[in-house]
Amino acid sequence: MKIVANFKMNLTPSETKSYLMNFIPRYKSSHDLTLCFPYTNLTLASFLVQGSSVKIGGQNICEDEDVKTTGEISGKMLKDCGVNKVIVGHIERRVKFKETNKMINKKIKTALKNGLGVVLCIGETLAEKNTLKTLDSLKTQIEECLKGLYEKELENIIIAYEPVWAIGTGATPLAKEIETSIKAIRKVISEDFSPKAGEEVNVIYGGSVNYKNIISFSKIKNLNGFLIGKSCLDGDNFLQILSSI
Ligand code: PGA
Question: Are the C-beta atoms of 206 and 163 separated by less than 8 Å?
């Protein structure tokens, strides 16, 4: 399975060192695992996972390469830190930094141009869910975020379905509801690119994944993996989760 761990603004470089020195020798699963750390930990983390199958990811990329912006990070920098892929479109960035689908589209193009894979987060708000607008919302986000991309580029993109109301809240959709959304995501890709692309694109689920719900969620049809936030923070707990699926 494709597993993306989002550490958000957790772990200092020294905490990352302790985490990985405990985690890496004990990680025996065959998942395609990417650990996404804050900028400050990327070079060290890349060094510490050397020789293992674990990849390192970033949590943001500046969409604009030409304007050297204070506090931002470029694709070239991420690549040079040993980063394999980058999360874009996370709801926390959409809300706090007013990231729009248009900006996210630019971020995706910049990441791909720099040889980085992309984890594109999309998901409906609670209001959209309650007014039965989930599928419309997913369609708009996919179409605006993937605008102008070539079908071939989808190979380097993982779509993370993360209902906004499930992130960090402990609440989750029913497995059946996740399955419906995954199916809808594949349908949009299939209409906008090709049926083959719709079948082959990687789609994962994120939002309050834990050791209890992951087992039943892992049986969802056409789901390729998980984006995990809180449950990756304790290395022992995360190892347990990874070996249970
Ligand atoms: P959570 O976070 O697993 O803590 O809900 C997921 C995310 O923010 O991507």
Answer: no
- Strand pairing class (32-36; 2-6): parallel
For residue 47, CA distances in Å to 24, 34, 111, 147, 192 come to: 12, 14, 21, 35, 39
Partners of 56 in beta bridges: 35
In degrees, rounded to 5, the angle at the alpha carbon of residue 118 between the alpha carbons of residues 108 and 32 is 175
User: What pTM was computed for the model?
Assistant: 0.97
Q: Which two tokens stand for residue 181?
A: 């959304």
User: Is 207's C-beta closer than 6 angstroms to any atom of ligand 1?
Assistant: yes
From the CB of 167, is ligand 1 less than 6 Å away?
A: yes
C-beta atoms surrounding 197 within 10 Å? 17
- Give the distance (Å) from ligand 1 centre to CA of residue 64: 27
The reply to whether ligand 1 has any atom less than 6 angstroms from the CB of 225 is no
Mutating to test ligand 1, I would choose from 172, 230, 231, 241 the residue with most ligand atoms within 8 A of its C-beta, which is: 230
Q: Is residue 113 within 8 Å of residue 74, measured between CB atoms?
A: no
Give how far Cα 205 sits from Cα of 129, 147, 160, 181, 186, Å: 16, 22, 6, 10, 13
Which residues make beta-bridge pairs with 32? 2
Residue 133's SS3 state is: coil
Q: Please tell me the total number of residues recorded for the chain in this structure.
A: 245
Dump pLDDT digits (tens) for 135-187. Answer: 999 999 999 999 999 999 999 999 999 999 999 999 999 999 999 999 999 99
Nearby residues of 98 by Cβ (< 8 Å), 6 or more positions away: none
Nearest to 170 by CA among 130, 139, 212: 212
